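User: Before I run my own analysis I want an independent prediction to cross-check against. Here's the chain; please return only the C-alpha cells and, at the end, one sentence I can use as a sanity check.
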Amino acid sequence: MFNDIGALELVALVVLAVLVFGPDKLPKVIQDVSGFIRKIRDFSESAKQDIRSELGPEFKDFDFEDLNPKTFIRKQLTENEDLKEIRSSFDLKKEINEVADAVNGHASDATVPAAVGRAAGAAAGAGGTGPDLLKKGGRPEHADRPPFDADAT
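Assistant: C-alpha cells:
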C-alpha cells in the first residue's frame, strides 16, 4: 500500500501528525485509524465471499485480481497454449535484425521481401549502402514540384 513512500516522507508525516494531534493524543488516533482500516478490510473480504457464494460452484476459481486488465493479459499470455505456440515461433529480435539489414542494404535479396529488396537494391545501386536520410536533397526540378494552389492556402 505504501510502497512509494520514502524515509524522508515518512518522517515528515510523523512530525506533522505530532504537530496536529499532539504527543498525548497520537497513540489513540493511530489506534482508531488502524481499527478503521481493519474494519474496511474485513468488510471487503466478506463482500468478496458473498459474491463468490452467489456466483456458484462454476466460479470457484474466480479471482478478483483477474479483473485488473494487466493481470488478465499476463495470465492469458502465460497460460494459453495457442499463444505460447505463437510466441515460441516468432523471434522478434530476428525479425528486427532482418528489417534493419534490409534497410541498410546488408541482406541478400533472397531473404528480403520483394518490395524491400528492390528499395535496398536501388539505394545500393545509387552509390551508397543505403539512403542517407540526413542529407538535404537538391531542389526539385520544375516538373517535379507539386502544383501551387492559391485557394488552398
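Sanity check: Residues 107-112, 114-127 have pLDDT under 50 and may be disordered.
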